[in-house]
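ok trying again, last paste got cut off:
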Amino acid sequence: MEEVNRNSGQGLGIAALIMGIISFVVAFIPCVGILAIFTSVVAVVLGAIGLSQASRAGSPHRGLNTGGLVVGVIALFVAIVQIAVVVGISNNADGFGKRIEKIVTDIQDDVLREIEDGNLRITIEEGDEKIEINASSNRQELLDKLDKLEKLDKLDKPDTLKETKPDTIKGTKPDTSNIK
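nice, full thing came through this time. structure:
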C-alpha cells in the first residue's frame, strides 16, 4: 500500500514565506529595494511549487504556500515600482540641473539689481508670519540718518566730556604733587 504524505509542500511553503518576508523588507529600503526582485521571484516560485505539491497530495497545509506566494508577489510589485521611479527620475535628471542653474541666475540678477538701485529689501514669509527687512545703500541717506541719531543721543545724555579735566581725557594721571 502507498502511504500518502499529508505534509507535502509544507517545507517549500516555509521557505517561500521566509523568502517573501525577506523580499518584502528589502523592497522598502531605498536604493537596495531593486535587489528584492531576485528574492521575491524565488518566493513566488517556491510558493507556486509548494501549492502544486500540496494540491496534488490533497494536503490541508496550503496556508504557508499561499502566504509565501502573496508576500513574494507584493514584494515583487514594490521592487518593480521602485525601478520605475528610478528610471523616471533618471530620464528627467538632465533638466533638473538646467532648472536649478536658471533659478540661481535669476536670484543673482535680482539681488544685483536691488543693490545697484541702492535699496535692498528682504522678505521672509512662513505661513501667516511675514518679516521684512529694508536697507539702503544711498550714502547721503545713511549719513542723514546717522546725524539724526547722534542728535537724539546728545539730547538724551548729558555732555560728560566738558565736565572732565583735560589731562584725564589724554589718559595721563593728574598732577598731585602740590597737594598736601
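cool. The radius of gyration is 40 Å. The first helix runs from residue 10 to 27.
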